[in-house]
Amino acid sequence: MHIVVCIKQVPDSAQIRIHPVTNTIMRQGVPAIINPFDLFSLEEALRLKDKVGARVTVLTMGPPMAEASLRKALSLGADDAVLLTDRKFAGSDTLATSYALTSAILKLSESDPVDIVFCGKQTVDGDTAQVGPGIATRLGFEQLTYITKIEDISLGSKEIVVQRRSEGGVQVLKTKLPCMITMLEGTNTMRFGKMDDMFRAARYELKTWSRDFTGAEEAKVGLKGSPTVVSKVFVPKPRAEKAKMIKADGTSPDALAAAAIDAIFAAQPKLADDLLARAAAGL
Q1: Are strands 55-61 and 80-84 parallel, antiparallel or unpaired?
Q2: Domain locations in the chain as residue ranges
Q3: In what order do the strands lie in the sheet with 55-61?
Q4: Are 18 and 25 contacting, i.e. CB atoms less than 8 angstroms apart?
Q5: Per CATH, domain 2-220 is 3.40.50.620
Q6: What is the per-residue pLDDT across 23-41, written as a single tens digit (0 to 9) for each?
Q7: How do beta strands 116-120 and 80-84 pair?
Q8: pTM value surpassing 0.85
Q9: pLDDT digit string, tens, across residues 208-237
Q10: Which of 182, 207, 220 is nearest to 103 (CA)?
Q11: Cα 179 to Cα 48: distance, rounded to the nearest angstrom
């Protein structure tokens, strides 16, 4: 079994700052980390490796500095790593990114067919949740999103059974391989790397692939292949209104609720009339 885990190096969201004049993200001095959502998928891939003996390849698209994230993944137990980097990839939106990553996955499949592609649910810098499904669509793989647990996998029948969180509860899904999986956050705990894996990660000769090597069409990557553009990033202005302390006649739930309702009606004088009108109309 061959598993590919797509990860992304992102700025630490806890330390992101917005330039006050240009309204762009200030990346200088902000540490880069593996997208936290990707770690849940990486851990699940490594668990499958422990269970069925799979080979795990980690793939990322980004600048040369993304090598650090790949080596981190190798130190946690991944077998191989590929850095997809090329100036022609710069400015790619989710459509172009999914195409570039798909081209790399197809290249990997030439030597070892890919059975499962893992992606994070979304990234903390983009929050689109579009790249994983985009890869699945281009590859023709089944999409298993928002997965909370992999119940069973059979190499003989090439089938996988998973639990998926939905608005109405939990769905149990069974499908054929190959497939694309996005793991939900909090579904597992990332392991600590072993010393042997850390040494191997430090010595590992990273595979660096360009657009030409993967065979991706130039018109479908970078700005040329990106129909969406982020025109502006800004910090919301702080509200001038301050929180008000509501005094209640007592500490019981009924007294607190009554005080809150009175405060709402006092702030919205027309609300009572609107509610009475709706009640009279039977709405």
Answers
A1: parallel
A2: 2-220, 239-283
A3: 169-176, 159-166, 142-154, 179-183, 116-120, 2-6, 55-61, 80-84, 207-209
A4: yes
A5: yes
A6: 666 667 778 899 999 999 9
A7: unpaired
A8: no
A9: 999 999 999 999 999 899 998 777 777 778
A10: 220
A11: 14
